[in-house]
From TrEMBL, chain B:
SUPFAM superfamilies: MetI-like (SSF161098). The keyword Transport applies. PANTHER family: ABC TRANSPORTER PERMEASE PROTEIN, ALKANE SULFONATE ABC TRANSPORTER-RELATED, MEMBRANE SUBUNIT. The chain crosses the membrane at residues 7-29, 63-86, 93-119, 125-148, 179-200, 220-244. It is found in: Cell membrane. Belongs to the binding-protein-dependent transport system permease family. The keyword Iron-sulfur does not apply. Residues 59-241 form the ABC transmembrane type-1 domain. One of its GO terms (cellular component) is plasma membrane. GO terms for biological process: transmembrane transport. Its main location: membrane. It is a multi-pass membrane protein. The lineage of its organism: Bacteria, Pseudomonadati, Pseudomonadota, Alphaproteobacteria, Rhodobacterales. This is ABC transporter permease.
Length: 265, 257
């Protein structure tokens, strides 16, 4: 199977007044079509830079980013993005917010079809009946759901999620995890999830990539095999505990708080 | 219950105005001030009646010059704000100039402008109204644009949207609440500009000139009548801006509670 996302030997440094600040150093990540990779790592290790590279919002100093067998040279309409800040437009209704990308990306859908699709996505994430509400009338979790619909409306190949659930309370977050599984079942996509939450990473992803501290390289990759649909109960099994243990240990190595000899790829 | 609330909403401010006018009337009566020293509220209706025509023509002149100056300020201020909001370099270059210009009391600019464009009273007045009112607009637009969270740009930019699209779809509507806030300040400032020029220019026109003729004759009822007329125009323009704000930026107002 061809890998949909291929990140090869990416190096990047930000230019600051104090000289270049390397953030990524030899990053290797590949995601199969339909795969879902979670990227975890210490704070400030360059995870957000990674999302901007995949989205084509910036170019790496060295190395290559490939999507669908094509080298990424700039923004492309086959990408959907959602951030920790849902950035909904306050002057638009929820429905109009979800439809926003279709005003930019050329689409085969008629106006009516587009609206139907938006309504379908909103119902999929549990927001039916809120189409005509303003973002300010919604709770944080609901806004994040709407933001997810907006990221999916133009049927992107790649969904980039940059800590989308980071600002939500624990119960809302778990609710949204389940929503994500429901969405992926109906609207298949290849996903990259940036997160700080190890439980989130093993619940949502089929592969967890641990980045080292800055400058970040791929330090460890953990496969999360899965039989059938996952439930929240799966997080409380010995298997999950073992996975979390491995990941926590790897994060400690990345933070420099544990000896590195056990690190492997 | 709501009926009582509307009655209260109208009655309370009305009673306050009546008390204020009664106190003013009493103050003039108590001190025995003659009309060449101070005017009482009861002197104002006769003053309006006597100069009815003048109030209409002069009021109109003041109004159109103020509105024209304000429109120019909106155009120029928005443009300047956009330039400073989008370009860090231009902001660094222009901001000190702008602050310096704004720090000059505009009363001192009046004689300069009046001398430079002698006799062009309409032009001078519009120019001053413009000069005094573009600053808050430029500043608010530039701040609104430069503080736009990067994620807002990224959601559209990642889809390949151009800078112009990002501006029309996101940056512009997002700055509207700040813009209208500044416009409310600018409306009042523009009136100050028009009146400064109208009062100071010899052979001026407009309500300011009418005020000045009242001054030379120590006609206090006329002077106070002009003040009331100016306040009336100011209130009308202010509420026009408020109405526009409701239409274009009503979304920024949150429901109470």
């Amino acid at each position: 199977m061809q890998n949909l996302i291929e990140i090869k030997g990416v190096r990047h440094a930000y230019r600051t007044d104090a000289g270049p600040l390397p953030v990524l150093d030899g990053l290797e990540i590949s995601v199969a079509e339909g795969g879902f990779v979670a990227v975890v790592g210490p704070s400030g290790c360059g995870k957000s830079t990674l999302t901007r590279l995949i989205a084509g919002l910036m170019k790496p100093d060295e190395g290559e980013v490939w999507l669908h067998g094509e080298r990424v040279k700039g923004p492309r309409s086959t990408v959907g993005m959602a951030f920790q800040n849902p950035v909904l437009l306050e002057w638009r209704s929820i429905l109009k917010n979800v439809l926003l990308p279709l005003e930019i990306v050329p689409s085969k859908l008629s106006k009516r079809q587009a609206e139907e699709r938006a309504r379908f996505l909103l119902s999929l994430v549990g927001l039916e009946g809120f189409e005509d509400k303003r973002p300010s009338e919604l709770s944080g979790g609901m806004r994040q759901r709407a933001s997810l619909c907006r990221a999916l409306i133009h049927q992107p190949d790649v969904l980039i999620l940059d800590e989308p659930f980071g600002a939500l309370d624990a119960f809302t977050r778990e609710d949204l995890w389940q929503t994500m599984h429901r969405v992926k079942e109906r609207e298949p996509f290849t996903g990259v999830l940036i997160t700080h939450d190890l439980r989130e990473s093993i619940f949502l992803a089929d592969q967890v990539v641990v980045l080292s501290g800055r400058p970040a390289r791929t330090q460890y990759v953990l496969d999360i095999p899965s039989e059938g649909p996952r439930t929240l109960e799966d997080l409380y099994t010995p298997v999950a505990a073992e996975q979390l243990n491995i990941l926590r240990h790897q994060i400690q190595i990345a933070q420099g708080r544990a000896p590195a000899e056990e690190a492997r790829i | 219950m709501t009926g009582w609330k509307t009655v209260r909403g109208i009655a309370v401010p009305l009673i306050a105005v009546v008390i204020f006018l009664a106190f003013w009337e009493w103050l003039v009566w108590f001190n025995g001030w003659p009309k060449f020293k101070m005017a009482a509220p009861s002197d104002l209706p006769p003053a309006f009646e006597r100069h009815w025509n003048l109030f209409l023509t002069m009021g109109w002149q003041t109004l159109w010059r103020t509105v024209l100056g304000l429109l120019l300020a909106v155009l120029f201020g928005t443009l300047l704000g956009m330039i400073m909001g989008f370009s860090r370099l231009m902001r660094d270059a222009l901001y000190p100039l702008l602050v310096g210009f704004n720090a000059i009391p505009k009363a001192t600019v009046v004689p300069i402008v009046a001398l430079m464009f002698v006799g062009q009273h309409d032009f001078n007045t519009v120019l001053l109204a413009f000069m005094i009112s573009f600053f808050p607009i430029a500043v608010s637009v530039s701040i609104g644009l430069s503080t736009l969270e990067p994620e807002y740009r990224d959601i559209l930019r990642s889809l390949g949207a151009s800078q112009a699209t990002i501006f029309w779809k996101i940056a512009l509507p997002k700055t509207l609440p700040e813009f209208f806030g500044a416009l409310k300040v600018a409306v009042t400032l523009a009136f100050i500009g028009t009146n400064l020029m109208e009062i100071v220019s010899p052979h001026g026109r407009g309500l300011g000139a009418l005020f000045d003729s009242g001054r030379t004759n120590s006609d206090f009822p006329l002077m106070f009548a002009v003040l009331i007329a100016l306040a009336f125009l100011g209130i009308v323009l202010y509420y026009i801006v408020v109405a526009l704000e409701k239409i274009f930026a009503g979304w920024a107002e949150r429901a109470p509670g």
